[in-house]
Amino acid sequence: MNFIKVDSYEKMSNLAADIIADVVKNKSNAVLGLATGSSPLGTYARLIEKYNRGELDFKEVTSVNLDEYVGLDGSNDQSYRYFMNKNLFQYININIEKTFVPNGCVEDLDAEGESYDKMIEDLGGTDIQLLGIGLDGHIGFNEPDEFFTKETHVVKLDESTIEANSRFFQSKDEVPKQAITMGMYSIMQAKKVLLIANGKNKKEIVEKAFFGPITPMVPASILQLHKDVTVIYSEN
Ligand code: F6R
Prior knowledge:
This protein is an alpha/beta fold.
């Protein structure tokens, strides 16, 4: 594992964007596994700058996102599809038809999970998976549990996750209680994993996840088993 500590969100974002940019430069049809939340916003802004400077071409790139709230469609400004369009896709030349986010609005969410995994498999897996980490150690929306879940699946969000994500909603009651998330198989098959985390409040969980025992009670700890993981942590 490559554990990098930096002293600012900006440095974390610059470094993360450089790593993703290298993947795209080396493989024009790269498959990028992407995340939402506050951690990757700076990374996406740097990628957009690189694109604007003509350093990157996303024309042949495919993206697959980790997760989506159940019940929110892409037109809802709290949905993760909306987030991706707003914060990245609209500014770059990625083919929107090749950007995938699990659909949390279908009736048969199990079938959606199955076809999402099959689609990732058919793409040959992701070349890089960008991840944030929740205060409870979740990656995607794989919450602490007695076991790791392999497939893309529906999860009930933990109270701490609902609380943390309520900052994006008018009130806590509006936060969906369920999400559909990529499971550990699709995350772990990424050729490279890049986890970014910032803030003093993430320090403890980052230490537990990467320097503690591997346990489904700290879902991110499974990444210790991956052969190419970079963690960038900024205390600020
Ligand atoms: C988002 C996701 C989540 C977030 C995590 C951290 O797609 O999968 O696991 O990465 O909740 O969120 P932030 O970055 O907002 O602290």
